[in-house]
Amino acid sequence: MDFKTFVFYILAAIMVFAALRVITARNPVQAALFLVLAFFTAGGIWLLLAAEFLAIVLVMVYVGAVMVLFLFVVMMLDINLDRLRQGFWSYLPVGALIGVLLVVEMALVLGGRYFGLEAMPEPPAAQAGYSNTRELGRLLYTDYVYPFELASLLLLVAMIVAVTLTLRKRKGVRYLNPSEQISIKRGDRVELISMPAEKE
Amino acid sequence: MEALLEPVAQLFGPAWPAVWTLAKIVAIIAPLMICVAYLTLAERKVIGYMQVRIGPNRVGPKGLLQPIADGMKLLFKEIIVPSGASKGLFILGPILAIAPSLAAWAVVPFGDGMVLADVNAGLLFLLAITSVEVYGVIIAGWASNSKYPFLGSMRAAAQMVSYEVAMGFALICVLLISASLNLTDIVRSQGQGQFHEMGLSFLSWNWIPLFPMFIVFLISGIAETNRAPFDVVEGESEVVAGHMVEYSGMAFALFFLAEYANMILVSILTSVLFVGGWLSPVSFLPDGFFWLALKTAFFLFVFLWARATFPRFRYDHIMRLGWKVFIPITLVWVIVVAVWMMSPLSIWK
Predict the structure, then answer these.
(1) What is the rounded radius of gyration, in angstroms, for the C-alpha atoms of chain B?
(2) Per the omega criterion (within 30 degrees of 0), is the bond before B229 cis?
(3) Chain B within 8 Å of A59 (Cβ-Cβ)?
(4) How many helical (H) and strand (E) elements, i.e. helices and strands, does chain B have?
(5) What is the pLDDT of residues B57-90, one digit of tens each?
(6) Chain A residues with CB-CB distance to B154 below 8 A
(7) What is the pLDDT of residue A39?
Protein backbone atom coordinates (compact mmCIF):
# COMPACT_ATOMS: atom_id res chain seq x y z
CA MET A 1 0.00 0.00 0.00
CA ASP A 2 1.60 3.25 -1.05
CA PHE A 3 1.33 6.49 0.87
CA LYS A 4 -1.46 7.89 -1.31
CA THR A 5 -3.72 4.89 -0.65
CA PHE A 6 -2.95 5.14 3.04
CA VAL A 7 -4.00 8.82 3.10
CA PHE A 8 -7.13 7.95 1.15
CA TYR A 9 -8.20 5.30 3.66
CA ILE A 10 -7.55 7.64 6.60
CA LEU A 11 -9.62 10.42 4.98
CA ALA A 12 -12.36 7.99 3.95
CA ALA A 13 -12.58 6.55 7.47
CA ILE A 14 -12.87 10.03 8.99
CA MET A 15 -15.49 10.98 6.44
CA VAL A 16 -17.65 7.90 6.98
CA PHE A 17 -17.45 8.39 10.74
CA ALA A 18 -18.36 12.08 10.44
CA ALA A 19 -21.24 11.33 8.08
CA LEU A 20 -22.60 8.73 10.49
CA ARG A 21 -22.34 11.15 13.39
CA VAL A 22 -24.25 13.78 11.40
CA ILE A 23 -27.35 11.60 11.55
CA THR A 24 -26.77 10.03 14.97
CA ALA A 25 -25.54 13.02 17.03
CA ARG A 26 -28.19 14.06 19.56
CA ASN A 27 -27.22 17.70 19.51
CA PRO A 28 -28.03 19.54 16.24
CA VAL A 29 -25.03 21.87 16.59
CA GLN A 30 -22.71 18.90 16.93
CA ALA A 31 -24.38 17.28 13.92
CA ALA A 32 -23.73 20.44 11.87
CA LEU A 33 -20.10 20.49 13.01
CA PHE A 34 -19.68 16.86 11.96
CA LEU A 35 -21.09 17.84 8.57
CA VAL A 36 -18.35 20.48 8.38
CA LEU A 37 -15.78 17.78 9.13
CA ALA A 38 -17.29 15.59 6.40
CA PHE A 39 -17.03 18.45 3.87
CA PHE A 40 -13.47 19.13 4.88
CA THR A 41 -12.35 15.52 4.44
CA ALA A 42 -14.23 15.35 1.13
CA GLY A 43 -12.07 18.31 0.08
CA GLY A 44 -9.02 16.28 1.10
CA ILE A 45 -10.11 13.33 -1.01
CA TRP A 46 -10.63 15.59 -4.04
CA LEU A 47 -7.13 16.95 -3.51
CA LEU A 48 -5.86 13.36 -3.76
CA LEU A 49 -7.60 13.16 -7.14
CA ALA A 50 -5.60 16.27 -8.24
CA ALA A 51 -8.79 18.33 -8.42
CA GLU A 52 -7.35 21.15 -6.33
CA PHE A 53 -9.72 23.83 -7.60
CA LEU A 54 -12.84 21.87 -6.68
CA ALA A 55 -11.37 20.82 -3.35
CA ILE A 56 -10.49 24.36 -2.31
CA VAL A 57 -13.78 25.78 -3.56
CA LEU A 58 -15.65 23.10 -1.59
CA VAL A 59 -13.91 24.25 1.57
CA MET A 60 -14.36 27.92 0.70
CA VAL A 61 -18.06 27.77 -0.21
CA TYR A 62 -19.49 24.98 1.91
CA VAL A 63 -17.26 25.11 4.96
CA GLY A 64 -16.51 28.83 4.91
CA ALA A 65 -19.91 30.24 4.01
CA VAL A 66 -22.85 27.83 3.79
CA MET A 67 -22.17 25.91 6.99
CA VAL A 68 -21.43 29.10 8.93
CA LEU A 69 -24.91 30.41 8.09
CA PHE A 70 -26.35 26.97 8.78
CA LEU A 71 -24.70 26.93 12.21
CA PHE A 72 -26.13 30.39 12.86
CA VAL A 73 -29.64 29.14 12.32
CA VAL A 74 -29.15 25.91 14.26
CA MET A 75 -27.61 27.74 17.21
CA MET A 76 -30.38 30.34 17.38
CA LEU A 77 -33.28 27.93 17.12
CA ASP A 78 -34.54 26.01 20.09
CA ILE A 79 -34.82 22.64 18.40
CA ASN A 80 -36.87 20.01 20.16
CA LEU A 81 -35.32 16.69 19.17
CA ASP A 82 -38.22 14.59 20.44
CA ARG A 83 -40.60 16.36 18.11
CA LEU A 84 -38.17 15.87 15.24
CA ARG A 85 -38.11 12.18 15.95
CA GLN A 86 -41.87 11.85 15.67
CA GLY A 87 -42.98 10.02 12.54
CA PHE A 88 -39.59 8.31 12.21
CA TRP A 89 -41.21 4.96 11.31
CA SER A 90 -43.57 6.41 8.70
CA TYR A 91 -40.69 8.15 6.90
CA LEU A 92 -38.36 5.15 7.19
CA PRO A 93 -39.48 3.32 3.98
CA VAL A 94 -38.89 6.40 1.80
CA GLY A 95 -35.53 7.10 3.42
CA ALA A 96 -34.49 3.47 3.17
CA LEU A 97 -35.45 3.38 -0.52
CA ILE A 98 -33.30 6.44 -1.30
CA GLY A 99 -30.47 4.98 0.76
CA VAL A 100 -30.60 1.67 -1.11
CA LEU A 101 -30.66 3.53 -4.45
CA LEU A 102 -27.55 5.50 -3.47
CA VAL A 103 -25.73 2.33 -2.40
CA VAL A 104 -26.64 0.60 -5.69
CA GLU A 105 -25.40 3.59 -7.70
CA MET A 106 -22.14 3.68 -5.81
CA ALA A 107 -21.69 -0.07 -6.20
CA LEU A 108 -22.23 0.26 -9.96
CA VAL A 109 -19.58 2.95 -10.24
CA LEU A 110 -17.03 1.36 -7.90
CA GLY A 111 -17.51 -2.22 -9.16
CA GLY A 112 -17.65 -1.14 -12.79
CA ARG A 113 -15.41 -3.91 -14.02
CA TYR A 114 -17.99 -6.54 -13.01
CA PHE A 115 -20.65 -4.84 -15.15
CA GLY A 116 -18.64 -4.40 -18.34
CA LEU A 117 -17.78 -0.75 -17.76
CA GLU A 118 -14.05 -1.23 -18.40
CA ALA A 119 -14.59 0.02 -21.96
CA MET A 120 -14.29 3.51 -20.48
CA PRO A 121 -10.61 4.39 -20.92
CA GLU A 122 -8.65 5.80 -18.01
CA PRO A 123 -7.88 9.50 -18.50
CA PRO A 124 -4.23 10.24 -19.27
CA ALA A 125 -2.14 11.56 -16.39
CA ALA A 126 -1.77 15.34 -16.26
CA GLN A 127 1.61 16.68 -17.27
CA ALA A 128 3.73 18.85 -14.99
CA GLY A 129 2.62 22.47 -14.67
CA TYR A 130 -0.97 21.54 -15.43
CA SER A 131 -3.30 24.03 -13.78
CA ASN A 132 -6.67 22.65 -12.83
CA THR A 133 -8.10 26.15 -12.35
CA ARG A 134 -7.01 27.44 -15.77
CA GLU A 135 -8.36 24.33 -17.51
CA LEU A 136 -11.72 24.53 -15.74
CA GLY A 137 -12.02 28.24 -16.43
CA ARG A 138 -11.24 27.76 -20.11
CA LEU A 139 -13.89 25.03 -20.45
CA LEU A 140 -16.52 26.95 -18.48
CA TYR A 141 -16.16 30.11 -20.54
CA THR A 142 -15.80 28.50 -23.98
CA ASP A 143 -17.37 25.07 -24.50
CA TYR A 144 -19.90 25.28 -21.69
CA VAL A 145 -20.59 28.99 -21.64
CA TYR A 146 -24.38 28.71 -22.22
CA PRO A 147 -25.06 26.10 -19.51
CA PHE A 148 -22.80 28.11 -17.20
CA GLU A 149 -24.64 31.38 -17.85
CA LEU A 150 -27.96 29.58 -17.47
CA ALA A 151 -26.92 28.19 -14.10
CA SER A 152 -25.79 31.61 -12.90
CA LEU A 153 -29.07 33.14 -14.04
CA LEU A 154 -30.94 30.46 -12.10
CA LEU A 155 -28.93 31.32 -8.99
CA LEU A 156 -29.67 35.01 -9.50
CA VAL A 157 -33.39 34.27 -9.69
CA ALA A 158 -33.15 32.19 -6.51
CA MET A 159 -31.33 35.05 -4.81
CA ILE A 160 -33.96 37.61 -5.81
CA VAL A 161 -36.72 35.29 -4.64
CA ALA A 162 -35.02 34.81 -1.28
CA VAL A 163 -34.71 38.58 -0.88
CA THR A 164 -38.35 39.24 -1.80
CA LEU A 165 -39.50 36.51 0.59
CA THR A 166 -37.89 38.22 3.55
CA LEU A 167 -38.45 41.80 2.43
CA ARG A 168 -41.17 43.58 4.33
CA LYS A 169 -41.92 47.24 4.72
CA ARG A 170 -42.44 48.22 8.29
CA LYS A 171 -44.16 51.45 9.17
CA GLY A 172 -42.78 53.98 11.54
CA VAL A 173 -39.20 52.76 11.40
CA ARG A 174 -36.71 55.54 12.00
CA TYR A 175 -33.24 55.14 10.67
CA LEU A 176 -30.17 57.33 10.32
CA ASN A 177 -28.64 58.37 7.06
CA PRO A 178 -24.85 58.25 7.59
CA SER A 179 -24.05 60.56 4.69
CA GLU A 180 -26.35 63.19 6.18
CA GLN A 181 -24.76 62.62 9.56
CA ILE A 182 -21.21 63.16 8.41
CA SER A 183 -22.05 66.16 6.26
CA ILE A 184 -23.24 68.07 9.30
CA LYS A 185 -21.39 71.30 10.06
CA ARG A 186 -20.57 72.69 13.42
CA GLY A 187 -22.83 75.67 12.74
CA ASP A 188 -25.86 73.37 12.42
CA ARG A 189 -25.47 72.10 15.97
CA VAL A 190 -23.74 74.78 18.02
CA GLU A 191 -24.53 78.43 18.12
CA LEU A 192 -22.06 80.74 19.80
CA ILE A 193 -23.61 83.84 21.25
CA SER A 194 -21.52 86.72 22.31
CA MET A 195 -22.95 88.16 25.49
CA PRO A 196 -21.46 91.08 27.41
CA ALA A 197 -20.81 90.53 31.09
CA GLU A 198 -23.53 92.01 33.24
CA LYS A 199 -22.89 93.98 36.38
CA GLU A 200 -25.26 93.94 39.27
CA MET B 1 23.47 25.07 0.41
CA GLU B 2 22.65 21.74 -1.28
CA ALA B 3 26.20 20.42 -0.77
CA LEU B 4 26.13 21.57 2.81
CA LEU B 5 22.91 19.68 3.54
CA GLU B 6 23.99 16.49 1.76
CA PRO B 7 25.50 14.69 4.82
CA VAL B 8 22.49 15.63 6.96
CA ALA B 9 20.14 14.33 4.28
CA GLN B 10 22.00 11.00 4.21
CA LEU B 11 21.73 10.75 7.97
CA PHE B 12 17.92 10.81 7.84
CA GLY B 13 17.64 8.68 4.68
CA PRO B 14 14.12 8.38 3.26
CA ALA B 15 12.63 10.48 6.06
CA TRP B 16 14.66 13.49 4.88
CA PRO B 17 11.91 15.33 2.91
CA ALA B 18 9.59 15.20 5.93
CA VAL B 19 12.36 16.35 8.28
CA TRP B 20 13.39 19.17 5.95
CA THR B 21 9.78 20.38 5.59
CA LEU B 22 9.34 20.30 9.36
CA ALA B 23 12.54 22.33 9.75
CA LYS B 24 11.16 24.92 7.32
CA ILE B 25 7.86 25.05 9.22
CA VAL B 26 9.74 25.70 12.46
CA ALA B 27 11.77 28.36 10.69
CA ILE B 28 8.52 30.15 9.81
CA ILE B 29 6.50 29.59 13.00
CA ALA B 30 9.20 30.40 15.56
CA PRO B 31 10.02 33.90 14.22
CA LEU B 32 6.29 34.46 13.72
CA MET B 33 5.59 33.76 17.39
CA ILE B 34 8.39 36.12 18.42
CA CYS B 35 6.92 38.76 16.11
CA VAL B 36 3.49 38.23 17.67
CA ALA B 37 4.97 38.64 21.17
CA TYR B 38 6.76 41.84 20.28
CA LEU B 39 3.81 43.15 18.27
CA THR B 40 1.86 43.26 21.53
CA LEU B 41 4.65 45.35 23.06
CA ALA B 42 4.84 47.54 19.94
CA GLU B 43 1.09 48.06 20.12
CA ARG B 44 1.21 49.24 23.72
CA LYS B 45 4.24 51.45 23.04
CA VAL B 46 2.82 53.01 19.86
CA ILE B 47 -0.57 53.69 21.40
CA GLY B 48 1.21 54.97 24.50
CA TYR B 49 3.24 57.51 22.55
CA MET B 50 0.19 58.52 20.51
CA GLN B 51 -1.61 59.27 23.78
CA VAL B 52 1.45 61.06 25.21
CA ARG B 53 2.27 58.26 27.66
CA ILE B 54 5.39 56.12 27.84
CA GLY B 55 3.85 52.66 27.76
CA PRO B 56 5.31 49.59 29.49
CA ASN B 57 8.87 50.35 30.63
CA ARG B 58 9.36 48.38 33.87
CA VAL B 59 10.14 44.79 32.86
CA GLY B 60 13.66 44.60 31.44
CA PRO B 61 15.48 47.43 29.69
CA LYS B 62 12.89 49.84 28.21
CA GLY B 63 10.18 47.27 28.89
CA LEU B 64 11.59 44.85 26.31
CA LEU B 65 10.91 41.77 28.45
CA GLN B 66 7.24 42.65 28.96
CA PRO B 67 5.90 40.13 26.33
CA ILE B 68 7.93 37.34 27.97
CA ALA B 69 6.46 38.20 31.36
CA ASP B 70 2.93 38.31 29.92
CA GLY B 71 3.47 34.96 28.20
CA MET B 72 4.74 33.35 31.42
CA LYS B 73 1.75 34.65 33.33
CA LEU B 74 -0.70 33.18 30.82
CA LEU B 75 1.22 29.91 30.68
CA PHE B 76 0.96 29.32 34.43
CA LYS B 77 -2.68 30.28 34.79
CA GLU B 78 -5.29 27.61 35.25
CA ILE B 79 -7.65 26.88 32.36
CA ILE B 80 -11.15 26.95 33.82
CA VAL B 81 -13.87 25.08 31.97
CA PRO B 82 -17.31 26.43 32.91
CA SER B 83 -19.53 23.76 34.44
CA GLY B 84 -22.27 24.09 31.80
CA ALA B 85 -19.85 24.18 28.87
CA SER B 86 -19.60 21.59 26.15
CA LYS B 87 -16.15 20.44 27.16
CA GLY B 88 -14.75 18.99 23.93
CA LEU B 89 -15.88 21.93 21.81
CA PHE B 90 -14.71 24.40 24.48
CA ILE B 91 -11.15 23.10 24.04
CA LEU B 92 -11.55 22.81 20.25
CA GLY B 93 -12.51 26.51 19.87
CA PRO B 94 -9.09 28.10 20.50
CA ILE B 95 -7.37 25.32 18.53
CA LEU B 96 -9.54 26.02 15.51
CA ALA B 97 -8.87 29.72 15.93
CA ILE B 98 -5.09 29.41 15.77
CA ALA B 99 -4.67 26.50 13.32
CA PRO B 100 -5.86 28.32 10.16
CA SER B 101 -3.94 31.47 11.01
CA LEU B 102 -0.76 29.37 11.08
CA ALA B 103 -1.66 27.15 8.10
CA ALA B 104 -2.10 30.18 5.85
CA TRP B 105 1.63 30.93 6.14
CA ALA B 106 2.43 27.86 4.03
CA VAL B 107 1.91 29.76 0.77
CA VAL B 108 3.29 33.19 1.73
CA PRO B 109 6.40 33.97 -0.33
CA PHE B 110 9.19 35.65 1.67
CA GLY B 111 11.49 36.08 -1.30
CA ASP B 112 11.95 34.85 -4.83
CA GLY B 113 11.47 31.09 -4.34
CA MET B 114 11.50 31.40 -0.54
CA VAL B 115 8.12 29.78 0.11
CA LEU B 116 7.14 26.62 1.98
CA ALA B 117 4.58 25.36 -0.57
CA ASP B 118 4.88 26.91 -4.03
CA VAL B 119 1.43 25.79 -5.15
CA ASN B 120 -0.39 27.03 -8.23
CA ALA B 121 -3.62 27.69 -6.34
CA GLY B 122 -1.96 29.73 -3.56
CA LEU B 123 -4.47 32.57 -3.54
CA LEU B 124 -7.42 30.15 -3.52
CA PHE B 125 -5.82 28.26 -0.64
CA LEU B 126 -5.51 31.51 1.30
CA LEU B 127 -9.17 32.36 0.68
CA ALA B 128 -10.27 28.91 1.82
CA ILE B 129 -8.09 28.90 4.93
CA THR B 130 -9.11 32.37 6.03
CA SER B 131 -12.76 31.42 5.59
CA VAL B 132 -12.28 28.53 8.04
CA GLU B 133 -10.98 30.94 10.69
CA VAL B 134 -14.50 31.91 11.72
CA TYR B 135 -15.19 28.44 13.19
CA GLY B 136 -12.91 29.01 16.17
CA VAL B 137 -14.98 32.05 17.11
CA ILE B 138 -18.37 30.43 16.58
CA ILE B 139 -17.49 27.22 18.42
CA ALA B 140 -15.93 29.12 21.32
CA GLY B 141 -19.01 31.30 21.66
CA TRP B 142 -21.45 28.43 21.57
CA ALA B 143 -19.48 25.98 23.72
CA SER B 144 -19.08 28.51 26.55
CA ASN B 145 -22.83 28.19 27.19
CA SER B 146 -23.17 31.78 28.27
CA LYS B 147 -24.91 34.82 26.81
CA TYR B 148 -22.08 37.29 26.29
CA PRO B 149 -19.76 34.88 24.46
CA PHE B 150 -22.65 33.73 22.28
CA LEU B 151 -23.68 37.26 21.29
CA GLY B 152 -20.06 38.23 20.75
CA SER B 153 -19.37 35.24 18.54
CA MET B 154 -22.52 35.87 16.49
CA ARG B 155 -21.37 39.42 15.84
CA ALA B 156 -17.85 38.33 15.01
CA ALA B 157 -18.98 35.60 12.66
CA ALA B 158 -21.42 37.84 10.78
CA GLN B 159 -18.75 40.50 10.44
CA MET B 160 -16.08 38.08 9.23
CA VAL B 161 -18.40 36.46 6.68
CA SER B 162 -19.47 39.87 5.35
CA TYR B 163 -16.02 41.31 4.86
CA GLU B 164 -14.70 38.10 3.32
CA VAL B 165 -16.87 38.81 0.26
CA ALA B 166 -15.31 42.23 -0.31
CA MET B 167 -11.85 40.78 0.30
CA GLY B 168 -12.52 38.01 -2.21
CA PHE B 169 -13.52 40.49 -4.90
CA ALA B 170 -10.41 42.57 -4.24
CA LEU B 171 -8.33 39.42 -4.71
CA ILE B 172 -10.17 38.66 -7.96
CA CYS B 173 -8.93 42.00 -9.33
CA VAL B 174 -5.37 41.10 -8.36
CA LEU B 175 -5.53 37.69 -10.01
CA LEU B 176 -7.14 39.20 -13.13
CA ILE B 177 -4.21 41.46 -13.82
CA SER B 178 -1.48 39.02 -12.82
CA ALA B 179 -3.19 36.07 -14.57
CA SER B 180 -2.00 33.70 -11.86
CA LEU B 181 -3.09 32.29 -8.52
CA ASN B 182 0.49 31.69 -7.49
CA LEU B 183 1.64 34.33 -5.00
CA THR B 184 5.24 34.23 -6.25
CA ASP B 185 4.03 34.92 -9.80
CA ILE B 186 1.81 37.73 -8.53
CA VAL B 187 4.84 39.45 -7.03
CA ARG B 188 6.95 38.83 -10.16
CA SER B 189 4.21 40.29 -12.37
CA GLN B 190 4.49 43.55 -10.43
CA GLY B 191 8.19 43.88 -11.22
CA GLN B 192 7.70 44.83 -14.86
CA GLY B 193 6.22 47.64 -16.89
CA GLN B 194 7.00 51.13 -18.08
CA PHE B 195 7.86 52.65 -14.73
CA HIS B 196 9.98 49.65 -13.78
CA GLU B 197 12.19 50.31 -16.79
CA MET B 198 12.50 53.94 -15.78
CA GLY B 199 13.85 52.77 -12.42
CA LEU B 200 10.78 53.73 -10.40
CA SER B 201 9.47 50.24 -9.69
CA PHE B 202 7.09 51.35 -6.95
CA LEU B 203 4.91 53.02 -9.56
CA SER B 204 4.35 49.73 -11.43
CA TRP B 205 3.12 47.84 -8.38
CA ASN B 206 -0.53 46.84 -8.15
CA TRP B 207 -1.48 49.55 -5.67
CA ILE B 208 -1.79 52.26 -8.33
CA PRO B 209 -4.09 50.62 -10.91
CA LEU B 210 -5.98 48.87 -8.10
CA PHE B 211 -5.97 51.73 -5.63
CA PRO B 212 -9.63 51.33 -4.52
CA MET B 213 -9.08 47.59 -4.08
CA PHE B 214 -5.92 48.25 -2.08
CA ILE B 215 -7.84 50.42 0.36
CA VAL B 216 -10.81 48.02 0.49
CA PHE B 217 -8.49 45.08 1.14
CA LEU B 218 -6.68 46.87 3.94
CA ILE B 219 -9.86 48.02 5.68
CA SER B 220 -11.53 44.63 5.20
CA GLY B 221 -8.39 43.07 6.62
CA ILE B 222 -8.78 45.15 9.76
CA ALA B 223 -12.46 44.15 9.98
CA GLU B 224 -11.63 40.51 9.26
CA THR B 225 -9.20 40.33 12.17
CA ASN B 226 -11.77 42.04 14.43
CA ARG B 227 -9.41 44.85 15.27
CA ALA B 228 -10.33 48.39 16.30
CA PRO B 229 -12.29 50.30 15.00
CA PHE B 230 -14.22 47.15 14.04
CA ASP B 231 -13.77 45.38 17.37
CA VAL B 232 -17.44 45.17 18.34
CA VAL B 233 -16.67 41.55 19.21
CA GLU B 234 -15.17 42.72 22.45
CA GLY B 235 -17.03 45.94 22.99
CA GLU B 236 -16.35 46.10 26.73
CA SER B 237 -19.45 48.14 27.46
CA GLU B 238 -21.78 45.71 25.64
CA VAL B 239 -20.54 42.13 25.50
CA VAL B 240 -17.44 42.32 27.78
CA ALA B 241 -14.80 40.35 25.83
CA GLY B 242 -17.05 38.57 23.36
CA HIS B 243 -16.32 34.94 22.61
CA MET B 244 -13.27 34.97 24.90
CA VAL B 245 -15.08 35.83 28.13
CA GLU B 246 -15.02 32.33 29.61
CA TYR B 247 -11.47 31.51 28.57
CA SER B 248 -8.44 31.80 30.81
CA GLY B 249 -4.75 30.99 30.71
CA MET B 250 -3.35 29.44 27.53
CA ALA B 251 -6.80 28.90 26.03
CA PHE B 252 -7.25 32.67 26.02
CA ALA B 253 -3.67 33.14 24.87
CA LEU B 254 -4.37 31.05 21.77
CA PHE B 255 -7.11 33.46 20.70
CA PHE B 256 -4.74 36.30 21.38
CA LEU B 257 -1.94 34.70 19.35
CA ALA B 258 -4.35 33.96 16.51
CA GLU B 259 -5.52 37.59 16.39
CA TYR B 260 -1.99 38.97 16.20
CA ALA B 261 -0.81 36.27 13.77
CA ASN B 262 -3.76 37.23 11.56
CA MET B 263 -2.78 40.88 11.76
CA ILE B 264 0.72 40.03 10.55
CA LEU B 265 -0.75 37.77 7.86
CA VAL B 266 -3.06 40.48 6.52
CA SER B 267 -0.18 42.98 6.52
CA ILE B 268 2.17 40.62 4.70
CA LEU B 269 -0.57 39.74 2.19
CA THR B 270 -1.25 43.41 1.49
CA SER B 271 2.49 43.84 0.90
CA VAL B 272 2.66 40.80 -1.39
CA LEU B 273 -0.49 41.49 -3.40
CA PHE B 274 -0.44 45.26 -3.74
CA VAL B 275 2.95 46.75 -3.01
CA GLY B 276 5.33 44.33 -4.63
CA GLY B 277 6.34 41.90 -1.86
CA TRP B 278 10.10 41.54 -1.73
CA LEU B 279 10.69 43.89 -4.71
CA SER B 280 12.70 47.00 -4.09
CA PRO B 281 10.92 50.33 -4.74
CA VAL B 282 13.72 51.71 -6.90
CA SER B 283 15.97 49.87 -9.33
CA PHE B 284 19.35 50.83 -7.86
CA LEU B 285 18.66 49.01 -4.59
CA PRO B 286 18.62 45.17 -4.50
CA ASP B 287 15.40 43.19 -3.95
CA GLY B 288 15.16 41.11 -0.82
CA PHE B 289 13.27 39.97 2.26
CA PHE B 290 14.23 43.25 3.91
CA TRP B 291 11.72 45.16 1.76
CA LEU B 292 8.90 42.73 2.55
CA ALA B 293 9.62 43.09 6.28
CA LEU B 294 9.64 46.87 5.97
CA LYS B 295 6.33 46.98 4.08
CA THR B 296 4.71 44.54 6.52
CA ALA B 297 5.92 46.60 9.47
CA PHE B 298 4.39 49.70 7.90
CA PHE B 299 0.98 48.03 7.49
CA LEU B 300 1.16 46.71 11.05
CA PHE B 301 1.80 50.28 12.16
CA VAL B 302 -1.33 51.32 10.24
CA PHE B 303 -3.29 48.71 12.25
CA LEU B 304 -2.05 50.21 15.52
CA TRP B 305 -2.45 53.76 14.26
CA ALA B 306 -6.10 53.08 13.36
CA ARG B 307 -6.70 51.63 16.80
CA ALA B 308 -5.30 54.70 18.52
CA THR B 309 -7.19 57.10 16.24
CA PHE B 310 -10.72 55.95 15.54
CA PRO B 311 -13.61 55.32 17.94
CA ARG B 312 -15.42 51.98 17.68
CA PHE B 313 -17.89 51.64 14.80
CA ARG B 314 -21.47 50.93 15.65
CA TYR B 315 -22.54 47.46 14.53
CA ASP B 316 -25.10 48.53 11.91
CA HIS B 317 -22.52 50.91 10.43
CA ILE B 318 -20.05 48.06 10.10
CA MET B 319 -22.59 46.02 8.19
CA ARG B 320 -23.51 49.01 6.04
CA LEU B 321 -19.87 49.67 5.17
CA GLY B 322 -19.32 46.04 4.24
CA TRP B 323 -22.44 45.34 2.21
CA LYS B 324 -23.51 48.72 0.85
CA VAL B 325 -20.16 50.40 0.25
CA PHE B 326 -17.36 47.88 -0.21
CA ILE B 327 -19.15 45.16 -2.15
CA PRO B 328 -20.58 47.57 -4.78
CA ILE B 329 -17.19 49.29 -5.15
CA THR B 330 -15.38 45.99 -5.60
CA LEU B 331 -17.99 44.64 -8.03
CA VAL B 332 -17.68 47.76 -10.19
CA TRP B 333 -13.92 47.69 -10.05
CA VAL B 334 -13.77 44.03 -11.14
CA ILE B 335 -15.67 45.03 -14.29
CA VAL B 336 -13.55 48.16 -14.79
CA VAL B 337 -10.34 46.13 -14.56
CA ALA B 338 -11.68 43.42 -16.86
CA VAL B 339 -12.72 45.97 -19.50
CA TRP B 340 -9.45 47.86 -19.07
CA MET B 341 -7.48 44.65 -19.68
CA MET B 342 -9.35 43.92 -22.90
CA SER B 343 -9.18 47.51 -24.18
CA PRO B 344 -6.26 48.91 -26.22
CA LEU B 345 -5.30 51.01 -23.19
CA SER B 346 -4.30 47.89 -21.26
CA ILE B 347 -1.01 48.27 -19.38
CA TRP B 348 -0.70 44.53 -18.67
CA LYS B 349 0.53 43.11 -21.96
Answers:
(1) 21
(2) yes
(3) yes
(4) 15, 0
(5) 888 888 888 888 888 888 898 888 888 888 888 8
(6) 72, 75
(7) 92
Contact B229, B312 (CB under 8 A): yes
Distance from CA of A7 to the nearest CA of B (A): 15
Q: Provide the residue ranges of all domains of chain A, joining segments of one domain with +.
A: 1-80, 130-165
Determine the Cα–Cα distance for residues A190 and B246; give it in Å rounded to an integer: 45
Q: What is the pLDDT of residue A118?
A: 66
Shortest CA gap B171–chain A (Å):
14
Cβ contact, residue pair B128, A56, below 8 Å: yes
Judge whether A65 is closer than 8 Å to chain B, CB to CB: yes
DSSP, collapsed to helix, strand or coil, labels residue B111 as: strand
Residue of B nearest to A67 (CA): B135
- Supply the ipTM of this predicted assembly: 0.82
Model confidence at A158, in pLDDT bands (50, 70, 90)?
Answer: very high
Q: Cβ distance B81 to B75 under 8 Å?
A: no
So what's the architecture of A1-80 in CATH?
Answer: Up-down Bundle (1.20)
State how far the Cα of A139 lies from the Cα of B97, in Å rounded to an integer: 37
Q: Which sequence spans correspond to the domains of chain B? A: 10-76, 84-342
What's the CA gap between A96 and B163, in Å, rounded? Answer: 42
Residue in A63, A75, A131 nearest the CB of B142: A75
Whole-number pLDDT of residue A128: 65
DSSP A155-170: HHHHHHHHHHHH----
Q: Considering CB atoms only, which of B121, B154, B317 is closest to A133? A: B121
